[in-house]
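Explain the record.
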Amino acid sequence: MQYSLLAPTSVDCTIKLPASKSISNRVLIINALSYSGLPIENLAESDDTRVLVQALNSSENVFDVGPAGTSMRFLTAFLSKIFGEWVVTGSERMKNRPIKVLVDALTELGAKIEYVEKEGYPPLRIFGCALYGKTLKLQGNISSQYISALLMIGPMVQNGLTIELEGEVISKPYIEMTLSLMRYFGIESEWNGARITIPQQNYAVKPFYVESDWSAASYWYSIAALLPGSKVILPDLFGESTQGDSKVASLFAEIGVESAYGSSQVTITSREVHLNRFAYDFTNQPDLAQTFAVCLALKHIPFRLEGLQSLRIKETDRIAALIAELRKLGYLLEETRPGVLEWKGEKIAVEPSICIDTYEDHRMAMAFAPAAVMFPDIKIAEPKVVSKSYPGFWNDLELAGFTIKK
């Protein structure tokens, strides 16, 4: 399946973004750990969240999370302390995404976990049991989802949990988000230097409303940047957000997109600016990298994007995917060293009848959709992949004035 896109000359609209998947998934686990009967309001409708809801509400003991990496990691930690025998599996891509670091850490706490097929990878067979606290030493450059998964079960571990992070800590805002949400639900913790300490304690039962997703907002910032004179109102976004990707607002200000904050919304407007070069370290906001790589290339702004190491183990190898797909548009990108992606202004001929492959990666589809501004009738392959985090994305594009031929 392919969608062919035509862009308007400007946009002026209000877009109700999906709720934050990152917040939704964390609060679902916390809610389950607190045995709360209170509903979570404005829960994300993403695939990742849907499979997590199904698993937590299921009476079965086998869970297929498909390509949902967050759900795989959070469920692995959660189920390791829920008495019973559980199997967690996923898509073929998921079966090739490593999980050994998390399994080893849980095993140190007393968890009983077996690899069903390939050592170090899902599917997993988990025998839920009591866990006993100790100090875990983990590399800071592992996925923050491993660390968050452990932190959330930390209060329920006998004698609590201490994690020492060694070396550079990547995706730090996601760890801070987890601890912030845990504090909202009554959990005391201390992050001092490289050491995070969580005493044994109980979660409080509290209501919760999930704010909109700043990662999803990034695609509207990109559209606005490519269409100067645009205006987009984004409800339920907050400047004081636990989401690290709220950094998108200040980063896009450099290329002409301004953000005005209301009591419960952000209004973005755009103007033409001329920037000679853009450089930023995305260690703490890796999910924004694709949006910026595509937008900057389309605006002919040479760039150097650092801190992209974790993009190798996302839904696809996002570095390789960006290089391949931007080449179709005539932009020659290079990974100058591991985790560093550069475009120095080099161009080649544009491919005829461009079709962007999405690699089962929702962010590839959404990051490249704004390219319709510069490349009318650009095609996006397997467009329904956006259901992973933003199911209404194509409908929202049509609301903004894009023409989509399905």
Remarks:
- The first strand starts at residue 2 and ends at 6.
- The chain has twelve helices and 22 strands.
